[in-house]
Design goal:
about 260 residues, alpha+beta, Uridine Diphospho-n-acetylenolpyruvylglucosamine Reductase, domain 2, Uridine Diphospho-n-acetylenolpyruvylglucosamine Reductase, domain 3, Enolase-like, domain 1, 3 domains, five-stranded antiparallel sheet, four-stranded antiparallel sheet, 14 strands, about 25% helix
Length: about 260
């Protein structure tokens, strides 16, 4: 790992200014960033630590929406009474996201900004209609979580932009489920991930891991038209069949009264 500068800004404005360089990277929990640096995939000259910006709150907004700061750890989300009461599907999904040691350190913002299609929360938050609030040199903007992604490990974040929080609309009478299929241990990266939200007779289905980004399906039968990505977790043909089965199971899971 090459030497780097560690900056620790005390304000969002300062952090954005420090990130206005191709050689700078934000540091949240560092669970993915440090691995990439050790492997030589990334060689930033400056890391900008976001720990002192006060972006770790988890609370209800005025409209009943969940407002989760980008620096909230995944473990804090999993254990939050607010999330558990209003969005239990998020807590359920987090229980098999990697392991508790990683969830104690990894942050919500870093999880979303990493852009890996094998991560669990992007498809679920996309299906729930969540939006990400971004701050950058040009000011603040809000985008749908699913619009954060442009491809494998590619996001639509501009230089100097940070995710500051995520807002998830109230679940209300909707029913939701997230299921993934792992080919090794339960906490492994998924071969496929499926998020389903049922709202009366309407189904929202977002798939991941089999595609290069969270992908919304027009219907449960639309799998055949997908461009499937084969990898070490399974061939494209294998993943296509897994998706057919997992989508059906996720819809059945979402229909259960306990949901």
């Amino acid at each position: 790992m090459q030497p780097f500068e560690l900056a620790e800004p005390r304000s969002l404005r300062e952090a954005i200014a420090l990130l206005d360089s191709d050689a700078a990277r934000p540091l949240g929990g560092g669970t993915a960033l440090m691995l990439m640096m050790k492997a030589g995939v990334l060689r930033p000259a400056r890391l900008v630590n976001l720990a002192r910006l006060g972006l770790d709150r988890i609370e209800l907004g005025a409209g009943g929406e969940l407002r989760a700061g980008a620096m909230a750890s995944l473990r804090a989300l999993e254990r939050s009474p607010v999330v558990r009461a209003g969005w239990p599907v998020i807590c359920h999904a987090l229980r098999t996201l990697s392991n508790v040691r990683v969830r104690n350190v990894a942050t919500l913002g870093g999880h979303l900004a990493h852009g890996d299609p094998h991560t669990d929360l992007p498809p679920l938050l996309s299906a729930l209609g969540a939006r990400a609030v971004l701050a950058g040199p040009g000011g603040e903007r809000t985008v749908a979580v699913e619009d954060l992604y442009a491809g494998y490990l590619e996001t639509t974040l501009k230089r100097g932009e940070l995710i500051t929080r995520v807002e998830v609309p109230p679940l209300g009478e909707r029913r939701a489920a997230y299921l993934k299929c792992t080919t090794r241990s339960a906490d492994d990266w998924p071969a496929v991930g499926v998020a389903v939200v049922l709202d009366g007779g309407r189904q929202t289905i977002v798939v991941s891991a089999a595609t290069d980004r969270p992908t919304r399906l027009a219907s449960a039968g639309a799998v055949d038209g997908l461009a499937i990505e084969g990898d070490l977790h399974g061939s494209a043909a294998y993943k296509k069949q897994l998706l057919r089965v997992t989508i059906k199971r996720a819809i059945d899971e979402a229909r259960k009264p306990a949901r």
